[in-house]
Specification:
mainly alpha, MetI-like fold, 2 domains
Length: 252
């Protein structure tokens, strides 16, 4: 973990050094995001301020999608045909709809259908959570099905209820196995949050677009945007790997 943090700091230091060295070049316009100038610092602050919305949007969406995904996964494990059919219909439908299309429908169509008002932030959360929940359901289903039948039979022999069996026996083991794909989904959510910029949410991508319109320096500004996402996702990846190691250590 320390190594990854050093790498992240190195990327930031390299970026700042590049900005300082190339800020006065004839063919480059790094001055627009250079920390050595007042306007550059102002632009950098403007870009970084969008980080709050990106993180909040991603965390809210991933938490909701995990809860919905688990609730959708359980019917898929039932013996009855009807609940399994409901599971397949939900999963296949929402996996087939592009996130951008779903996002636009939620923001512009849902208020008409339900006669409610919805902000760009919550439209993004709902769209991302619903779309991701279909993938989460498959992750949970696969993880639960990977638990050996002996564990399930042992829980049944103890007279545990379905709820207790899931809570104390199956899910703790399944979560350890599905943690890597859950981490991948969080990274995926962080990247897909950039799509919410199309409906006006002032997150990282939206702020970069607005700054490009005023400064006319897309290369430099979008380079900063790429590095923002890169550093953010590297930090998340380090956290997920640390959690994996901790959970493996707890098993031993």
């Amino acid at each position: 973990m320390v190594g990854w943090m050093k790498l992240t700091k190195g990327l930031i230091a390299g970026l700042l050094l590049t900005l300082l060295l190339t800020g006065c070049g004839a063919n480059w316009g790094w001055y627009v995001v250079s920390p050595s100038t007042e306007s550059g610092r102002s632009n950098l602050k403007f870009l970084i301020d969008g980080l709050g919305y990106t993180i909040a949007l991603s965390i809210c969406a991933i938490v909701i999608s995990i809860v919905i995904g688990l609730l959708i996964a359980l019917p898929g494990l039932a013996k009855g045909r009807a609940p399994r059919t409901m599971n397949r219909v939900y999963v296949e439908c929402f996996r087939a709809i592009p996130i951008l299309v779903l996002l636009l429908w939620v923001y512009y169509g849902l208020p008409v259908v339900l006669d409610i008002g919805i902000t760009a932030f919550w439209a993004g959360v709902v769209a991302l959570a619903i779309s991701d929940s279909a993938f989460e359901a498959e992750i949970f289903r696969g993880g639960i099905q990977s638990i050996s039948k002996g564990q399930i039979e042992a829980a049944d022999s103890l007279g545990l209820s379905y709820y207790d069996k899931m809570r104390y026996v199956i899910l703790p083991q399944a979560i350890r196995r599905i943690l890597p794909p859950l981490g991948n989904q969080l990274v995926y959510m962080l990247k897909m949050s950039s799509l919410v910029s199309v409906i006006g949410l002032s997150e990282l991508t939206r702020r970069a677009n607005e700054l490009v319109v005023t400064e006319y320096r897309p290369l430099e500004i979008y380079t900063i945007l790429v590095l923002e996402y890169l550093i953010l996702i590297l930090i998340v990846s380090v956290g997920v790997r640390w959690l994996e190691k901790k959970m493996r250590a707890d098993e031993q």
